[in-house]
Amino acid sequence: MMVTDVFFYLFATVTVLAALGVVGARNPVHSVLFLVLAFFSTAGLFVLLGAEFLAAILVMVYMGAVAILFLFVVMMLDVDFARLRRESVRYLPLGLTVGIVMLVELALMLGHHHGSSQGPVAEKVENTLAIGQALYTRYLYPFEVASLILLVALIGAVALTHRERKRVHRQDIANQLARTKGDAVELRKVASGEGA
User: Which of 16, 55, 157, 179 is an S-S bond match for 46, by CB 3.0 to 4.6 Å?
Assistant: First the structure.
């Protein structure tokens, strides 16, 4: 059995166990932590396959953005964080275990990437460069169409959030600018002792 096979089974096992932890954890914060571990282990599998660009994108986009978004959603839920803080000592071993597993996996990925030069080398072209050349030459039009679809989706999301709602006061700048002194000020003669 080769070293690559050992790393593959290690990363695959951690990924499956972390995915089960995402679904089975009772605490939503633990689910997000298990999700981060699953993303990290999947990135290790991508590195073993020679797809460093996909591994970097998985770590940067999913771990950096999606998992943080999930964490914000969890924080917006009605979770009793005072009780969680009181019981944080109980959860410290789980957090340390997840952190140590991620550090070990990172060391294994870096050691495998720098230590082995196996694999087919066709033209001495890096993965990122090859993806960029293919994306901006052969697949330029589908890439632009995907960009336009995302732009339309973004505009649609903004339009849906800014729809007219009843009982919501909005600023009308044209009416404010057209207002005169007579519209805004009313002078009244008030007798002495009869004021408000």
Answer: 55
